């Protein structure tokens, strides 16, 4: 596995309701959308802040993007990230959310689970997500608008931000402008869990 890839073995992929593994199904959906609007992979990569090689790997089902990268790609394709999640997200507002009652979302693989935290009120600036990160996971290098605040709940993650490494263990935090190129590597034994809070509105409000 290279630092630019998020490759999952076929045995780890969930079924997508067809004979093809979920990463291939996601790649096909993205490729069909890109061709329908007449964009090249180079154009999508440039607008999404990713490499053309990584876009090619997604479309071929070799790699699966992180949620934020899928958000960037969806924006470049003129659509919503909701379309590509394992189930449609709830567009609700609640000042309180309870553990065990929040649904988990996947992007083409069952091992990386995103627990989206509902915004407390319409027009809220902050967005939150608790992510389960499998052992050995390495995200792609990405950037986007806004700012990110990360609290590592458990595990051990090496975050790279603008070419500098930050070694976080459970209880540590990281806060940086999201426009800086960044990625993460789970260097611990077993899965890690992080709380992300940011100003990027990944799931659009109705």
TrEMBL record:
Keyword DNA-binding: yes
Record InterPro entries: Cro/C1-type_HTH, Cupin_2, Lambda_DNA-bd_dom_sf, RmlC-like_jellyroll, RmlC_Cupin_sf, TransReg_Diox_bact_type
CDD domains: cupin_XRE_C (cd02209), HTH_XRE (cd00093)
Chain intervals for the UniProt region annotation (Disordered): 1-23
A Gene Ontology cellular-component term: cytosol
GO function term, MF aspect, one: DNA-binding transcription factor activity
Keywords in alphabetical order: DNA-binding
Gene3D superfamilies for the chain: Jelly Rolls, lambda repressor-like DNA-binding domains
Positions of the HTH cro/C1-type domain: 30-84
Transmembrane annotation, as ranges: none
Protein name (Swiss-Prot/TrEMBL): Transcriptional regulator with XRE-family HTH domain
Gene source species: Shinella granuli
Lineage summary: Bacteria, Pseudomonadati, Pseudomonadota, Alphaproteobacteria, Hyphomicrobiales
């Amino acid at each position: 596995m290279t630092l630019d890839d998020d490759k999952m073995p076929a045995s780890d992929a969930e079924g997508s309701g067809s004979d093809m593994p979920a990463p291939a199904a996601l790649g096909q959906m993205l490729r069909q959308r890109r061709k329908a609007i007449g964009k090249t992979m180079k154009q999508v990569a440039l607008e999404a802040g990713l490499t053309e090689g990584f876009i090619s790997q997604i479309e071929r089902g070799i790699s699966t993007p992180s949620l934020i990268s899928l958000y960037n790609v969806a924006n470049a394709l003129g659509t919503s990230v909701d379309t590509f999640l394992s189930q449609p997200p709830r567009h609700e507002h609640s000042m309180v959310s309870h553990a065990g009652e929040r649904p988990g979302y996947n992007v083409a693989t069952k091992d990386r689970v995103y627990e989206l935290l509902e915004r407390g009120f319409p027009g809220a600036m902050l967005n939150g997500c608790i992510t389960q990160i499998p052992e050995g996971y390495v995200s792609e290098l990405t950037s986007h608008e806004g700012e990110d605040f990360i609290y590592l709940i458990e595990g051990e993650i090496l975050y790279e931000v603008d070419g500098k490494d930050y070694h976080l263990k459970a209880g540590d935090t990281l806060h940086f402008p999201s426009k800086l190129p960044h990625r993460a590597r789970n260097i611990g034994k077993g899965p890690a869990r992080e709380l992300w809070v940011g100003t990027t509105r990944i799931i659009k409000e109705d």
